[in-house]
Records
---
Amino acid sequence: MPKKIVIIGAGPTGIGAAYRLNELGHENWEIYEQNDYIGGLAASFRDNKGFVWDIGGHVLFSHYPYFDKYVDGILKNDYVSHLRRSFIRIQDTWVPYPFQNNIRYLSNEVILECLVGLYEASRNRQPSANFREWIDAMFGDGIARHFMLPYNEMVWKFPLDRMSKGWIAERVSVVDFKRVLGNVILERDDAGWGPNSKFSFPLHGGTGAMFEGYRQALGDHLHLNHKLISVDAESRTLNFENGHQTTFDQIVTSAPIDALIPMIKAAPQAICDAARNLSFTSGVMIGLGFKKPCPSDKCWMYFPESSSPFYRVTYFSNYSPNNTPGPDHYSLVCEISCPRGTVDDVGSKAVETTLDGLLAAGLITRDDVDALVSTRVIKLERSYPVPSLERDQNLKVAQAFLERYDILSRGRFGGWRYEIGNTDHSFMQGKEAIDRLVLGDEEKVWTEIG
Ligand SMILES: Cc1cc2nc3c(=O)[nH]c(=O)nc-3n(C[C@H](O)[C@H](O)[C@H](O)COP(=O)(O)OP(=O)(O)OC[C@H]3O[C@@H](n4cnc5c(N)ncnc54)[C@H](O)[C@@H]3O)c2cc1C
């Protein structure tokens, strides 16, 4: 009898695991999801006005042919390809992303400050022990002060000097002085950096279509509305909020690891403490649907200035014409970060705060406010897993404890590693967890990156 594998969570990690189990022809498995839908943070929703909403602005770019093959099988040709048009709103102007490559759009005083800082930093590179020090050491005073520090403070809502720098590789563009100087003097745009400079988006159904399209293949293995509440690791029994009980030989879970550990009977206090000490940022995602043609061809914009409530705004209707009820409509998805424990408070006034911020930034006018026909507020208790200085030590302790019981905790909040916290990374972690459990293969994404 093949071992019984239980998957907790039907987000990208869980779907990656299920897809691989189907591919391998392993039949003894179940997938439990607390929500009444699949897709997790990568789900999408259509409202009764005909607007489609993602949970924050998601774009599809992948590092893995295996994930590409899965997506191709689901979407076929039903997607739109985009070249990124992304900007930073700063000092009442638009600077193409990445900021540090395109400072020529700023005032001469600020350009000079940024260039001098970058030059001094590169001439005398200081060692850095945390993210804040790394920003100063890599970019110097000007770029740090005008963009890198305020923007990251807005996103993470966590002290930057208590964050590590080990996760940065693909997430922050590092530039050299000569290139930036060249961009300024030659008035050259330099906006092609990064893995998401080209991206795709499903033509119908939002990001969630990539996972919704696999629902049928989950068959009777899928159990929605099943929230795991306790685990007896010794007797290998799982208990769900609705009274359902099941057994397992092995588990692949993408439930937040800080919530999972305390569910395990007999988890020692030190392990619970390690899990509790993992830090996260909360977020409120605000969708605004307008009955007006879209005024811009931009994709998304960053807002580092504290006068703005959001750190990012996406012209979501530009990703697919089917994200709105018709061509005479457009939609914005705005993202606000907040410290843990404040999401209800921030969420309760998010629409008003966001409209005020958009008016102040000149993104909308009073006419747009009058044309607002749909709003959607999504509150996320956990939006970003913070790469805090203590993260890796806490994770090591928590993961080692789980592995003793053949529980592999993977994905954005199961694995808690932001550097491999995107959709494609998560899907691959699910797939490779199954390869490890069924075939004895080594996990690559989980062990090699970060
Ligand atoms: C604002 C934002 C923007 C993003 N933008 C992008 C982007 O542009 N591109 C990209 O690739 N990625 C993006 N991501 C990341 C992407 O959403 C995640 O990588 C992905 O959803 C993680 O998948 P996962 O399965 O690990 O976790 P999740 O999506 O969180 O899925 C976990 C699932 O487990 C379920 N669950 C939790 N606890 C229990 C329980 N006790 N019992 C049963 N079920 C449970 C949850 O309901 C959920 O369905 C973004 C994320 C956010 C928050």
---
Amino acid sequence: MEEKLALMIEAARKSNERALAKLISHVEDRKPGWKDIMKAIYAETGRTCVIGVTGSPGAGKSSLVGEFAKQLGDMGYTIGIIAVDPSSPFSGGAVLGDRIRMRDISTYKNIFIRSMATRGMLGGLCQAARDVVRIMDFAGRDIVIIETVGVGQDEIEVVSASDYVVLVTYPGGGDSVQAIKAGVMEIADIFVVNKCDRGGADVIVSEISAMLDLSTETTEEIPPVIKVSAFTKEGIDKLMEILSEFIQKKNEGSHYQKEHIRQEVMSILETEMVTLIKEKISSNGNMEKELKLILSGKSDPYSVADELIKRFAVIKNPKQKRKGDFQ
Ligand SMILES: Nc1nc2c(ncn2[C@@H]2O[C@H](COP(=O)(O)OP(=O)(O)OP(=O)(O)O)[C@@H](O)[C@H]2O)c(=O)[nH]1
Ligand SMILES: [Mg+2]
């Protein structure tokens, strides 16, 4: 490994925030040596408790994350926050709002904040988030909180890779309970109804509880549903109590671990395979020959895809490599 990278790792190990930020950028941008960094730090990770916070836009996720990050910081934990920005042009205002709210807490010495775009993440958003979590973990963050708007499949995947998932909703958010995306409901470990200072929260709490009663198997534990207000701080104590239990449980060993690792290896494989095949294709005439065959009616996209997979991704006998096979 390059000496510069080794030095960066060494400084991040000692919790140097500049080195931590640089290391994250290096890996996020997939600069040369990124994988060596991840390999080098892996053995020293796995300690951090990862809390995913998701929910409808404007539910108060950032306000709540700010609140419990401060409290956890005061309890002596070091915190990393990953704010996954909705990079859609429609939510430009929300991103700015996030930054302002996040700025309030970024002056806390125990809190390190990192924003992440949802688009254009090399290697996929979920893997990028996992990598950032892991680097923060290596740099000694006890707790990493990931905030995402629970709208896209990618984002659901991001939170599902967390140890615990907090789902935030609020009264007045339209058809709030119906708005909870299928797929998020199942992965939530706690349901938080925010903005209870406004009224109407009890109705949402009962609706969610009724829904959980119906959908949860009798052998499963029903996740808690609590109402809070990031403004008046009502219910925040209860929320902190539950989060502390999560953190405690994580320290005793997470049952998700094996499944998470399986998913991670699959996701790394998927992106690496696609990258490799793309490279092979572009250095082998960029499919010009095959495209001509399709255009002239002599082949079709399905057969070409099959043929390219055979040619570039399947090594039948590694000793007899053909030209164009993976090296
Ligand atoms: N009345 C009331 N308003 C709140 C509460 N918490 C947050 N808000 C307001 O709700 C709006 C959205 O809050 P955010 O914390 O940015 O919500 P978010 O879920 O992070 O929003 P996005 O990241 O844009 O999806 C802001 O105007 C907050 O001031 C609360 O407990 N009560
Ligand atoms: Mg937010």
